[in-house]
Structure formats: structure tokens, C-alpha cells
Amino acid sequence: MGRWAPVAAAALLHIGCVGDIGGDPEQDPGVQSVQGESPTSAIPRLSRREIDATVLEVFGIAGAAEKNLPADPKSAVNPGSHAEEEVYDTLAATKSPSQVFVEGLESLAFEVARDFSADTAAVDALAGCTPTGPGDTACLTEFVRNAGLRVWHRPLEGDEVDALVTEAAPFATDPAAAQEGFYMAVRAVVASLLVSPEFVYRVEVGTSVADDVVELDNYEMLAKLSYFLWGTTPSNDLLAKAGGDVFTDSDIADLVDTMLADPRAEKQMRKFHELWLRYDALLVTDPDLAADMRAETDALVDRALTGEGADWTSLMTSTETFVTPALATHYGLATVPTEATWVSYDDDRAGLLSQGSFLSLSETRLTETLPSRRGAMIGRRLLCEVILPPPPNVAIDKGVEVPEGSCKSDAYAAHRTGSCKGCHDTIDGIGFGFERYDGLGRYRDVEQDNASCDIPGTGTAEGKDFSGPRDFATKNIDLITECAVANLVKFAVRDWSPSAERVDRMIAAFDGSHYDFSELVRSLAVDPSFRYRVVAPED
Amino acid sequence: MSRFRIGRRAMLRGAFGTAIGLPMLDCMLNGNGTAYADGTGLPLRYFLLHCPTSLVTSGSTSEGMTPTQTGTNYDIRPVLQPFADQDVAGDISVVSGLFAPPLDAPGGYNVDYHGQAPYAVMTGTRSGFSGVTWRPQNYSADQVVVQRLAPATKFPFLYYQLDTQTGGTTVCYEQTTGFSDEPPIVYAQIEPQTSPSLAYHQLFTGFSPPSDMPDPKIELERRLRMSSLSYAKDRITALQSRLGSNDRKTLDEHLTRIRDLEKRIQAISGTVSPSCHDPMLGDTDPADLSQDLPDQEARAALFIQLVELAFACDMTRVITIGGASVMTGSGMRNQLWNNIGGLHGEVQHTADQSDLDNANRWFVDVYARIIARFKATPEGAGNVLDNTAALFVMEGGKGLSDDPQRSGDGGGDPNHSVDNAVVLLGGRAGGLKPGQHVSLTGQDIHPTTVITTAFEALGIEPTLGEISGVVDKLFT
Q1: pLDDT top residue among B26 and B143
Q2: What residues of A are in contact with residue B193 (Cβ under 8 Å)?
Q3: A352, A293 Cβ separation under 8 angstroms
Q4: Which of A195, A353, B311, B342 has its CA 20 to 30 A from that of A396?
């Protein structure tokens, strides 16, 4: 299990004094911890990925959401900055109930209900009983309770159970359901549970504890933790712990440790890195090369997250990489192994920023690079720089035109004048520092379109000169680390811009753990702010 | 015409009646088979395929699509070769020489080409900044047709997209609520359906062709679906009372979508072509050919089939197919051009003109195959194409001038321009006379004018946003 084993609740020490101090709720550290946060929805909708995971977890059916539901947006206009920003699939604000979504959800419910109810053994297992006949409403009631608990991640109220049984039971005795009998009623139950708002909208109504602040109840908190740490619904074991008194901070720390010890947590944190850096969808056209690049990146991420003595910063600074013979040859590495293995770099490469999976993500012209676009990508994703979109009369999709016979660096330098200068100084400065690596991660020292032009390979980021990925990562590792933390917080809380105070607390915790990513995740989950939500004043 | 028998129960199946109507029989029609016996016209239909490209790459000013000769004996250029392959040259007119200004002017796209030209052409309204972002400023053409024709079909409209990638700029727009610092009502992109499998299930789940004997199992499933939706409505109502205004608004919208879906499940459509049938497609979409390379040919074939049947079964009278969302990453992948890269970044901007011509021919081929399918679908004494206006609209044209008054992004890129644009209009609805090339070069006629000409053919006012008018030659 490596670095994801439970750790004592001492992790709480990272975030200072917590707990119930009684008295004025405004003085409660939990309430204080969310001051400065923006109001968030009480019904954040699950992502397609989370819906898929939940259906698989409860009903054992894979891929239903990917098949039936539209993909979550990868970018959206931030109403705060007015700029189009890359977003996580968890961001609540991007999820409107479009016609395609609602109809897709109904199709998903119809199909999952049909396929699951046909597996009578699985139905009986979830119900915890074997029906005595089509009219066995006692067994149907048990099924409603058990399935409802997992799908809505809370126990259904008595009237909710009764309504569902009343609605579904007649289907068992319908003449057209003679063959399925009891299981046709189960089908109606599953369809109703899945098409209901409590499935796709994770409810966080909570209890008001101060002006404009609510505290989540145990089930709401458990679901929030589970979708952050596992990407899916809580297990029965965890749900069984939610029925008693309100969770204490210590209870929550125990829950978080239990969840972090589960393999689902590792998988979820790998997914976060995919979504942050966006190597989940490579544009590399050669499928074998793309597969090798993906394996290279996965190996590095695993090593940085869970390897022995893992230090997350090695994701950016590692001087070793995992390559197949074909990939090593493609890159032109000095060492070409005879089988897939770790090899040492002997040049200015280091970490993920040297890998084809990342260097190909500048989105266009895969071998010839667009330094401005690559620089903007690295600035936004790695340094969390706010780079506004270009003015409407700029064609960002083509890059700067390089006249026949000219050198690219000269053409870009000539472009960095007037109103273009501000942005291009920033983004070109970063992009040209990576210019010795083409769009497939291969090293070159002369320009692709004009071999008489040397590529200096030097750039500037955050006021510091650098040359190549290793130099960039080494000189900017603090900023990159802070940016990763800010991204994880956004991923977890499903909002555009969590407060700087919350991000600062997490950065301090990460530093204190010597960049153990599991400690960062733990600190975020047990932070008092995680169980509170700010509501809009008019609400 | 004798394939179907009229069964009254097929029409009158109560609240959960079948999703299909009566077959159109000779006895229902006038003597010529061109209208109903009571004089009512046969159903009129609108179709549009949007091609997400220009005529030329960034480095070219010549292309292989626009015919050199006008009239009925125009020359079939290489991009239009599918007209000949599908034997539909006589069923489609080519309108060339169209122009939309990159300016704050009627139907203008206000400089930013990729970001806003589709907004301008598909709405006939100049694009605009909402206070938060650039948005379309009106309903798209399909929504206007829905409002004006108000067809009582199962689906008011269908909107598919050939490519799998979402995001970017798409081509159908509806009204919605603005962000807090926007006007209360703004226009936003409608989400296209990109899954042929899901599109099939939405059309045909619960489908049974007209017959005397309803399938009790299908009826039961329909009741089950309605029951679960009814339950969901109750749950939404219960939940809303515990929420703030913004969240209630979200659930209101969700509730409206559910009600629309209920209507569709219950709906009985009007008359249908004898060729209406369930194509019995599979449960899954065509597998990708390799990573991030969808099997576009197989996907297009399924969408073509669904479009044909949606009209044949009178499930809708308004269909839009987007080719791909504009500016999504490097652009649409297709086996035909995958060795070059994406449709946007590589094929349109850095590849040879012949590569873009090949890509454009692929989109024209999809369009021509749809036209051929409409033509092969019998209706009355003729076919569905006789009662359809079917458009092919492109993102851009061919900028021959560096003049920023005529090309987007300040001029200088032939690709970033809606000048010398081409729109195709197929079908014979309302007296359209297809099979000719009409050149409007030098007249600064807006591409949307061909869309409003289609409106005229459908019997609705030829106005879309700021653009009005009819290309009279298309009726003569």
C-alpha cells in the first residue's frame, strides 16, 4: 500500500487548533475557515466519470455513463475573470441540465435497470433476501432500502421507501411481466432511483450554523469525502458509521485514513494528475508511440505518489524516466534499454515536462512547435499564471508567421512589440526555453523549417532565466508545487477559485510533509472548511 | 403503399400510446398525391449540415469546390464529386460568392473569425459581448424554424454532431439565463448529441410500427419509463423546497427537460413514410480506430440512417448536424486526414489545399448521401426530398483580400474569412428548383440569405435576425 497507509490524526496538527470550542458559532474554527470562500451550490452534480464509477460500484455495470451522457466540459468561461479557463470535470458551475444530459440520464437509468434486474442473483444479494413470489413487498422494501442507501448515499426516509414500493410493486404482477415477476418491480425501483435528482446531484443542504454558513450532516460529509477521495459513492461500511452522533474532527480524520488506505484513493489521485496536466488524451497520432508515452508518464506519477520515500516534487525533477526501447530511440536518449525500464537522462531533461505526453499537448502542429501556445500552456497549468485570452483580432491557432528564410526566434522577437509585447514576453519567454524539444518530445538544436537557424533553447519564467525542462523545474519547483496544491483544492471543492487562505493552509501542510502527496490529500479532507459550505445571502 | 394496415388501436393507445403514427396511404391524399385530400400540404422539413471549414487553407486562394460555370449545366468540381457519385446533382443548388462582414454590422462577426463567424451566419445576427463572454445574439436558424412551423412531432428538433469532441463553438443556440453580470436573458449553445447509439435509442426505444396488435412488453416498458420520470418529478419538487434560488432554478430547468421527455415518450406523430422502420442498431457506438481517432465513416453512416428515418417516421421536421465543434483542440480527426493531423490546426492552416479539398469532399459526401436518402424515401406521389429544404453551410469561405473590412482577424489569412463563401441548398420544398449554380459574387449577399431562402420555401417569413431576403433564382 506504500504511502497511502493510514496515519494517525496527528495530521490535524498541521492546520492548527480545531474542534468544538462552543459558544459563538462565528468563532468556530470551522466557520472561520470558510470565511472568504464564495457561495457554492447545495446540489453539485456528479461528473460523468463519477456517475460511471457509482453505477459500477452499486450495480456492477461498467460504462453506462460514458455511453449515455455527454462529456463534461474541459473549459468554460469563468464569470469572475471573464476568461475561458481549463476546468475539472468536477466543477459544479459547468453542469447545466441540458436536454442531452437529462435524456441521457433517463436512457442510462432504463438500461442499467434492465440489465441489473436481469441478474437475479445480484438483485438478491443487494436486497439481502430472496423473493418468495412476485408480490413479496417485504423483500422489495429491503431492496429499496439497500439500493437507495448506496445510490443516494443516505438512508431513505420511511415515506420515501413507501412511495417507491407503492409505485414499483404493481409492475411485478403486470401480465406483461409474467416472466420477470418480482424483478420487474426491482427494475422500476432502480430506474426511479437513478433518474431522481438525489443520484446525480450530491445534496449538501446541511444545517445553518452562522450567517450564510451551513455545516454538512454526516451523510453529506461522507459522500463529499468519498467522491473526493474515491471518485465514487461511500461503501456500506462507511455509511454504517454515519448514523450516530455528529462526526467529530477525530471521527473525520479516522474516516479519511480509512479511505486513503483503500486502492480507490490511489486511483483517484492518479486521475487528478491526468486531469490537471491533461495527458489523458494525447494527440500523438502513432498509437504505439502514444501508448509508450502514456506508460512512461504513468510510471513517473506512480513513483512520485506512492513509491518508497516518495517525494511528489520528483514528478517534475526526476532525472530518470521509464522508457521502452522504441521510446528511448524516438527521444534520442543516450541509453536505449533492451526492455521497458528506468534509465537516467544525460541531458537537460527532467521529470514529466520532458516527456512526449506533455510536450505534445500544445494542441496543434504536433512536430513543429508553437512557442507562444506551449508557453501559455505551461504558464497556466504549471505556474497558475493568469494569462488572459488574446484580443479577438489575434489568430491564436496559427502562431506567429515566420517569413521564408527567417529564423523562428527572430520572427517571434519582432512580434513582441506594441500591444503584443506584454503577453508575448511572458508566454514566449517560457515557450522558447522548451524550444529544443519538438511536439513529440524529440531533441533538436536547429529549427525544423530552417536548419541554418540554431535554437538557443533559453527562456525566462517568473523573472528567472532557464534552459530546458530540468532547469525550469528546478528553478520553479516552489511555484509549481503551490500551483499543484491550488489545483487539487479546486478539484476537491468543485469551485472556480477557493480562498487563498485555504490554499495557503494546504501548501503549509504539504511543505511540512516533505511533499508526501497523501499527506496533502489528508490535510485537505480533514480541514475544517471541508464540512462547511457558504450559501448565497438571498438563500 | 400496402405494407401497413390502419389499426385504430395503433392510434389510440391511451396515455402511453406508441411513438409512431399512421402510415400515409393513397386514400389520404389528393388525386396527384401531392397533398392531403383535404388540401392540407404534406409535411415540410428543414435540414442543415454545418461543415466546420473554409474553402481554402491559410496558404491558398484557389480551391476545388466553387463551379466555374453558372446555371444548370455547371461543372462539378472535385469537392462536389459526391453529387455525381450519389446522382443528386439535379437535386441541389450551389450558391457561391456570399459574404459576411468581419465587422459590427448586420450579420457581422466582429473580427474574431473562429470564435464568432458561426454565431453570425447561424443566427443572421452580429455577434456581441455579453459583459462576460462573446455569445450568439439570437436563436439559431433551426430554433426559428421550430418556433414558426411549431410541428407537433415527437421531437421539436434533433441536433447531432459527427465528431466526438465537444466544447468549442457549435451551431445551434437557445435562450438561457445569463451569469450574474450579464443580461438576464442571453443565448447559449445547445449541446449536440454525439453518440449515434444514444441518438438511436432516443428515437426508437419503445418504438413499434403501426399494427393492430400492440406489443404488451413495449407498452409495459413505456409505462415503467413514465413511472420513473413521474417519481423523479416528485423528488425534484420535494428537494426544491430545501434549496436556495439558484439551485431551485437549476432543478426547474431539469424539471422542464423531464416534462419535455415525457411528452416525447407519449407522443403520437402524424403520418409516416412506408419506409419508416426500426433500424435495430446496436447498443454501442463504433469503436475508435485507434487512440483519439474515431471511426468517423461508421459514425456518419449511422447518423445518416437516423436522419433519414427520423423524417421517414415523422419524428421531427427539423434536423441539424454539426460537423465538429470549431476550435476544439487541433480539430476533428478522421482516418482520411489523420496522417496530416487535426482538421483545424493542421488541415485548414498548414496542409496543402488538396488536403483541405479532400476533407471538404468528405463533408459534402455525407450531405449528398443524406440528400440521396431523402430522395429514396417515398412520400405521397413523390419523396421526402420534395418537401424538404436541405442546407449545407460552411464556417468560412475564401478571403482574397488583406482588407480587414472583408476578412476576419484583421485580414491576411484567406482561411479566416466569410468572403466568397458557398452554401448548398437541396430539395424541392415550396417550389425550390434545385440543380443550378447561382453566383452572387460582388453583390455582398450574406450566407444567411440562403437560409432565409429555405425559410421562404418552408412557408415562413424569410428573416433570420438581421438578415432578410430570398435568392429568387433558386425558385426559377
Answers
A1: B143
A2: 100
A3: no
A4: A353
What residues contact A417, with CB distance under 8 A and at least 6 apart?
none
> Which tens digit of pLDDT belongs to each residue from A183-226?
999 999 999 999 999 999 999 999 999 888 999 999 999 999 99
Asked whether residue A277 carries a pLDDT value surpassing 50, the answer given is: yes
User: Cβ of A109 under 8 Å from any chain B Cβ?
Assistant: yes
- Give the C-alpha separation, A241 to A222, whole Å: 9
Judge whether A196 is closer than 8 Å to chain B, CB to CB: yes
- What's the CA gap between B302 and B196, in Å, rounded? 6
- Residue B6 confidence (pLDDT) above 50: no
pLDDT averaged over every residue in chain B = 86
A338: its cell numbers? 533492451
DSSP characters over B249-262: HHHHHHHHHHHHHH
B23 vs B2: CA distance, rounded Å = 9
Neighboring chain A residues of B111 at a CB cutoff of 8 Å: 392-393
Q: DSSP secondary-structure letter at B345?
A: I
Inter-CA distances, B454 with A421, B40, B304, B388, B389, Å: 47, 20, 21, 9, 6
Angle at B256 between CA B253 and CA B258, to 5 degrees: 115
Which SS3 state, helix, strand or coil, does residue A505 take? helix
Helix, strand or coil, per DSSP, at residue B5:
coil
Residues in chain A closer than 8 A to B198 (CB atoms): 67-68, 104, 107
| Cβ-nearest to B247 among A43, A188, A284 | A43
Does A82 reach chain B within 8 Å, measured CB to CB? Answer: yes
Partner-chain contact B231 A167, CB within 8 Å: yes
pLDDT at B4 over 70: no
Q: Comparing C-alpha atoms, which of B447, B325, B460, B297 is closest to residue B389? A: B460
CA distances from A280 to A293, A331, A360, B291 (A): 11, 21, 12, 11
Question: What is the spatial distance between Cα B269 and Cα A198, in angstroms, rounded to a whole number?
Answer: 33
Residue with cell 468544538: A20
Q: Residues of B numbered 392-421 whose beta carbons fall under 8 angstroms of chain A's beta carbons: which are they?
A: 409-410, 413, 416
Contact (Cβ atoms closer than 8 angstroms) between residue B261 and residue B267: no
Q: Which residues in chain A have their CB less than 8 angstroms from residue B114's CB?
A: 395, 397
**Above 80 in pLDDT, residue A479?**
yes
Q: Which residue has the higher pLDDT, A507 or B184?
A: A507
What is the ipTM, given to two decimal places?
A: 0.89
Question: The C-alpha cell of A295 is what?
Answer: 506508460
Chain A environment of B224 (Cβ under 8 Å): 171, 184, 187-188, 191
- Cβ-proximal residues to A220 (8 Å cutoff; 6+ apart), any chain: A154, A202, A203, A204, A205, A206
- Tell me, yes or no, if B193 comes closer than 8 A to chain A by beta carbon: yes
Q: What is the pTM of this model?
A: 0.79
pLDDT in tens, A167-185: 999 999 999 998 899 999 9
Q: How confident is the model at residue A100 (pLDDT cuts 50, 70, 90)?
A: confident
Q: Is B250 exposed, middle or buried (0-12, 13-18, 19+ CB in 10 A)?
A: buried
Helix (H) or strand (E) holding B187: strand B185-189
Alpha carbon B187 to its chain's center: 18
CB contact burial A169-195 (16+ within 10 A = b; e otherwise): bebbebebbeebbbbbbbbbbbbbbbb
Query: Left, alpha or beta for B342 (phi > 0: left; psi -120 to 50: alpha)?
Result: beta
Helix, strand, coil percentages, rounded to 5, for chain B: 35, 15, 50
* B368 contacts B307 by C-beta, under 8 angstroms: no
Q: Considering chain A, what is the average pLDDT of its residues?
A: 88
Q: Test B243 with A97 for CB contact under 8 angstroms.
A: no
Using alpha carbons, select from B175, B205, B322, B191 the residue that is nearest to residue A48: B191
CA-CA distance, B272 to B313, in Å (whole number)? 5
